Amino acid sequence: xxxxxxxxxxxxxxxxxxxxxxxxxxxxxxxxxxxxxxxxxxxxxxxxxxxxxxxxxxxxxxxxxxxxxxxxxxxxxxxxxxxxxxxxxxxxxxxxxxxxxxxxxxxxxxxxxxxxxxxxxxxxxxxxxxxxxxxxxxxxxxxxxxxxxxxxxxxxxxxxxxxxxxxxxxxxxxxxxxxxxxxxxxxxxxxxxxxxxxxxxxxxxxxxxxxxxxxxxxxxxxxxxxxxxxxxxxxxxxxxxxxxxxxxxxxxxxxxxxxxxxxxxxxxxxxxxxxxxxxxxxxxxxxxxxxxxxxxxxxxxxxxxxxxxxxxxxxxxxxxxxxxxxxxxxxxxxxxxxxxxxxxxxxxxxxxxxxxxxxxxxxxxxxxxxxxxxxxxxxxxxxxxxxxxxxxxxxxxxxxxxxxxxxxxxxxxxxxxxxxxxxxxxxxxxxxxxxxxxxxxxxxxxxxxxxxxxxxxxxxxxxxxxxxxxxxxxxxxxxxxxxxxxxxxxxxxxxxxxxxxxxxxxxxxxxxxxxxxxxxxxxxxxxxxxxxxxxxxxxxxxxxxxxxxxxxxxxxxxxxxxxxxxxxxxxxxxxxxxxxxxxxxxxxxxxxxxxxxxxxxxxxxxxxxxxxxxxx
Length: 616
What we know:
With 616 residues, this protein is mainly α. The chain folds into three domains: 5-81, no CATH class; 98-279 and 376-605, Growth Hormone, Chain: A (Up-down Bundle); 308-372. 66% of the residues lie in helices and 3% in strands. The protein has helices at residues 46-57, 62-68, 98-120, 126-133, 139-152, 154-164, 166-185, 190-218, 224-250, 259-262, 264-278, 291-298, 301-304, 309-328, 338-366, 384-413, 419-424, 427-445, 451-468, 482-508, 514-548, 554-562, 572-605, and strands at residues 5-7, 18-21, 26-28, 41-43, 78-81. The chain is globular and about 75 Å long. The relative contact order is 0.11. The model is unreliable at 1-88 and 283-289 (pLDDT under 50).
């Protein structure tokens, strides 16, 4: 039998159906993954053809004839047959190359940069924003509202991309982010801004989650470490550059703070354009593309039946209720308040119910008794390494978010520097973190260093760097010079840890579970950061309230809680005392963060195996 060519479109493990003519010639189609490159042909392996020949010699079942229709005498008639994927080797995966990859990469880079920038850009502009709309007491909710939805939707978007398509969900997330960025810039009140920030965080969550989903399919496994290093560098660069830009934009006062959000409009529009044209959608076996038909099929009744609605709701409820309790306890409500107690109880119930429900959904799926797919398959956590990865990601997130937000705030409240100077104070952290991610990619991909070794080094550096911040002076004029060195150590630790965990994930789980695993690792990391931000805020507020009452009147304390610049209306002696109280509160935060990074170091030790996993 002659060997014929087939058009193979798709990533690893994506087999299509083969069809053979009456003369014995066979053609095969492969379904396109959402990030595959169309129009690339490969020679069919001889083993595949032999399998088809063997299959043709067997009589076709009657059910197959009824399903496909009767054969005609024409030798060109097509008879579809099924080939067992387990016995037939997959053709080599196809990857996007050349200028198309660069254009797609630009769209991905812009999307990730802008969505990550919004996480921290408000840290140095909170004072200017809340001064303009009169809401300093609720300042942390501008950050927390974004992080709540960012945290809650990471796994959800990853799972929905399996059901509704990666391109569809990516464009939807980017559109939501861009629209609500514009609305944030137009907000007139603090409550209005917080609501818009929550929706903005939802879109940003989808952007990051979908980038983690499509990244493994864009490049070969041996270069995945370098690709993740680039992505993590963009993430870290935007995270640390955010406070600098926020300070520069908001320092001029007036309405300039609105550009903290409005700058996403042109960038988001450009990214939407690039991704629409260069991120491929599903393509049929004939090689024709119809995005409208693709959308209708993706959002069909059958697709919706696969959605784990209850699991999604329970996961969101757990994230929102937990962060709300941690943010409000000790500031607006005492810990013993019925509001806080009830919120924590319902958060606990939601979390436990989510675990039980996901177990039931996964069990029904294995028994073929349901079409729902679990939002997060609990079976992934059965292995020690996978569970340790999740725990390590959680504890890495604790210091990362809190440090980036608290250092600029400390600089303004304690050292009396401008918002732009406070942002520039993060420059060592901004430079060292991307350098560490690039170094991690080089070591794992080119030098074949086991990822777990790099993660351990990163965890040790985090403990040292965060621990040194506890020694910062409580009285000083200007930004402390030693803090620059502490930031370099912390930046190296964050950079080595964040990116390398994602590289290790690809070595631990199979391709089928990789999207939800990437989303889960990111979700628990951001959840750790969100929880730490709430706890740190509680620590500071609980320290400030009794201490400030000894120095100033309740009216003056309330004025400072609404507008930090009100400190300048007090006498020099009062100002010095208040700044000392703020410094003591921030040092208490750092002690808490050191304890959490120490736990992260312990969980990273559980990643050690007798034979360490390597990229090659």
